[in-house]
């Protein structure tokens, strides 16, 4: 049986480091400390939505953000009472009603969003809590920053919506500083126009994990932290964040293969001599060697991904699994649910512990999570 292990002390360490950095950069313009909004989307980046959120609550985090209706409802059904912001907007009446019924803060970013939320507020005779989303160059949810007149016109018609915050989202803050600064300026220009028109903006937030670490001057009233809690960032780690999770399994079989024997799919590895191997029931479906590379925007990242694939195929680029504390080379292609490794002269036997370094968000949700 495989287990995704989350190291509690390392997670606490990351939480405290992030709190320290938020506090270090002072207070907002109203004298309040910068608020941390913990993003727990995608099954909390693979850490288990409810258990991870409760862990954060126990360590002083009280404001959360999710990406889907299902995530929001799951937290409420688990009995969590803290603030929850739905980062995605919707103009589907049934979805908005469910969010309102569960006391979830809406995101509004279009004329249609506002109309349906205002209508539901009128029907229920209550103020609907919402954050206003500005699209500063992501092309996803939110009012396009240039369409200020349209935005102001519809915002002034609201009677049953209370804006508790206004935010935007960076598209490339881990790499492109110039574009990130442009997005920030667009956001602040919109905020200025909204205030000039006596439109309440609430707390302001634009920083994701990367921007939080790189641009202290952009913290505003709140920051949204997701991957940084996991110790996974796409640039140099300068504040000592720790990677908190690993995949644990066991050796399920050992055998000896003759010289010239193929291992794994596509026959890309052939034993150069008689070899002792161990089989571990973990593969790419469990998250082994699954990376974010294909999601990178830069051409250089795409080229590197292609180059790595070519190297793996033709040059048998080495990958390792730790068995009983020793690094063992993985042989051949990683399978759907297994890997084969070279046990060499090591005293490896069935049942021995095997450890894989993995990105937690790619670990199958059916695999048990354990906080240690």
Protein described:
It is a single chain. With 372 residues, the protein is of the alpha/beta class. The chain folds into two domains: 8-230, Alanine racemase (TIM Barrel); 245-356, Lyase, Ornithine Decarboxylase, Chain A, domain 1 (Beta Barrel), CATH 2.40.37. Helices cover 31% and strands 23% of the residues. It is built from ten helices and 20 strands. The chain has helices at residues 8-24, 41-45, 49-58, 69-77, 93-101, 111-124, 148-155, 177-196, 209-214, 299-314, and strands spanning 3-6, 35-39, 63-66, 83-86, 106-108, 128-135, 143-144, 161-167, 203-205, 222-225, 245-250, 253-257, 262-263, 269-270, 275-280, 320-323, 326-331, 339-342, 353-356, 368-371. Strands 12-15-18-17-16-19-11-1-20 form a nine-stranded mixed sheet. It is elongated, with a radius of gyration of 24 Å. The model is unreliable at 294-299 (pLDDT under 50).
Brief digest:
It contains 10 helices and 20 strands. With 372 residues, the chain is α/β, with parallel strands linked by helices. The two termini are 17 Å apart.
User: In this structure, how is the largest beta sheet organized?
Assistant: 9 strands, mixed
Termini separation: 17 Å
* Secondary-structure content class: alpha/beta
The CATH architecture category of the largest domain equals Alpha-Beta Barrel
How do the helices and strands follow one another from N- to C-terminus? EHEHHEHEHEHEEHEHEHEEEEEEHEEEEE
CATH superfamily of the largest domain: Alanine racemase
Overall spatial form: elongated
Roughly what is the average pLDDT, rounded to an integer?
91
CATH class of the largest domain: Alpha Beta
């Amino acid at each position: 049986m495989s287990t995704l292990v989350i190291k509690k002390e390392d997670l606490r360490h990351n939480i405290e480091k992030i709190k320290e950095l938020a506090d270090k950069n002072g207070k907002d313009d109203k004298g309040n400390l910068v608020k941390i909004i913990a993003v727990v989307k995608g099954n909390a980046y693979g850490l288990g939505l409810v258990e991870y959120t409760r862990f954060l609550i126990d360590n002083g985090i009280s404001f959360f953000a999710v990406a889907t209706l299902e995530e929001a409802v799951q937290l409420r059904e688990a009995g969590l009472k803290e603030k929850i912001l739905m980062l995605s907007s919707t103009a589907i009446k049934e979805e908005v009603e469910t969010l309102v019924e569960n006391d979830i803060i809406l995101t509004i970013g279009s004329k249609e969003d506002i109309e349906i939320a205002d209508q539901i507020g009128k029907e229920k005779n209550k103020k609907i809590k919402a954050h206003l989303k500005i699209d500063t160059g992501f092309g996803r949810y939110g009012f396009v920053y240039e369409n200020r007149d349209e935005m102001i016109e519809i915002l002034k018609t609201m009677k049953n919506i209370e804006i508790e915050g206004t935010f935007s989202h960076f598209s490339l803050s881990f790499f492109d500083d110039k574009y990130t600064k442009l997005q920030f300026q667009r956001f602040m220009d919109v905020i200025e126009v909204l205030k000039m028109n006596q439109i309440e903006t609430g707390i302001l937030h634009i920083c994701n994990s990367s921007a939080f670490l790189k641009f202290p001057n952009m913290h505003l009233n709140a920051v949204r932290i997701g991957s940084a809690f996991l110790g996974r960032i796409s640039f140099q780690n300068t504040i000592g964040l720790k990677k908190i999770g690993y995949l644990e399994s066991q050796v399920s079989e050992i055998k000896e293969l003759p010289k010239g024997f193929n291992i794994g799919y596509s026959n890309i590895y052939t034993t150069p001599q008689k070899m002792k191997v161990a089989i571990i029931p973990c593969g790419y479906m469990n998250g082994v060697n699954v990376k974010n590379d294909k999601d990178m925007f830069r051409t250089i990242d795409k080229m590197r991904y292609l180059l790595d694939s070519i190297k793996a195929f033709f040059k048998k680029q080495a990958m390792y699994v730790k068995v009983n504390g020793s690094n063992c080379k993985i042989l051949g292609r990683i399978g759907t649910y297994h890997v084969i490794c070279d046990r060499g002269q090591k005293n490896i036997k069935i049942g021995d512990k095997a450890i894989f370094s993995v990105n937690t968000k790619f670990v199958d949700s059916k695999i048990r999570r354990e906080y240690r």
